[in-house]
Structure formats: C-alpha cells, structure tokens
Amino acid sequence: MDKRFWVCGLVMSVAALLLGFIVHGLLLAPGYAALGAMYRSDDDSRHYAHWMVLAHVLVGFAMTWIYAQGFSDGRSSAMQGLRFGVAMALFSTIPGYLVYYAVQPLPAALVAKQLVLGTIATVLLGLLVAWLQPRRKVLAELP
C-alpha cells in the first residue's frame, strides 16, 4: 500500500462522510425527525459522532482497497467506477436498508428514499474511486 492508496482512502472517507451528511443530515432529516424517539436526538447523537466518522473511514478505505484489487488498465475508468459503485450498492447499501426495513417500523416511503439516495451516493463513490485510481501509474512512471 503506497502513498497513493492512503491519499485515495482519505479522500474517499471524506467524500463518504460528506455524501452521508447530504443524504441523511439534510435530505432525509425531516423524515427521520418525524419518527421521533425511534432515533437519537441531536444532542444525544453528538456523543456518538466518532462512530459515524469511523464508519465512513472504513467505507472509504475498504472501497479503495477493494477497487484496487480489481482495477483493469484496459477499461474506461468511468465504466469501471459505475460498475463498482453499482456492485457496492447491491452488496451493502440496498441490503442494509432492506434489513433495517424488516426489523424497524420505518415508513416505506422513507426506506424508498434511503434506497435511491444511498444507491446514488454509493455509485458516486464508485466513480470517485475510479477517477482517483489507487493503483494508477503517475505520469512520471510512464515510459
């Protein structure tokens, strides 16, 4: 794991945290607030913010590492990123929200929004990691 991997993982972590804030902290916040005591209050959730940061750091570095294992030099970066983002959404985002829906009394409309927005965010992360390409050769290394 070289310097590029660590930089890519850090950028991906920040992007995951930012997208999570946009999706859940802004776009879905009214839906969560309507559920009342099912979720932590703003004051209580502040005590758990470090777990949220850790979760997004894990997402950023895991996506970077997994993408680096399957990167193909002969294919378009955008198509690889799109494919990777869809695969990650099918692997984690979509099943996660479906499990939450099965075990928590969440409104179907809210879960539908989580599925759509979460999938879009995951695909965007896939495109970002493909653009960053953690195993890409820098121009100075090319013949």
UniProtKB/TrEMBL annotation:
Assigned keywords, A-Z: Membrane, Transmembrane, Transmembrane helix
Domain of life: Bacteria
Organism placement in taxonomy: Bacteria, Pseudomonadati, Pseudomonadota, Gammaproteobacteria, Lysobacterales
Designated name of the protein: DUF2938 domain-containing protein
Record field: transmembrane: 7-28, 48-68, 80-103, 115-132
Organism: Luteimonas soli
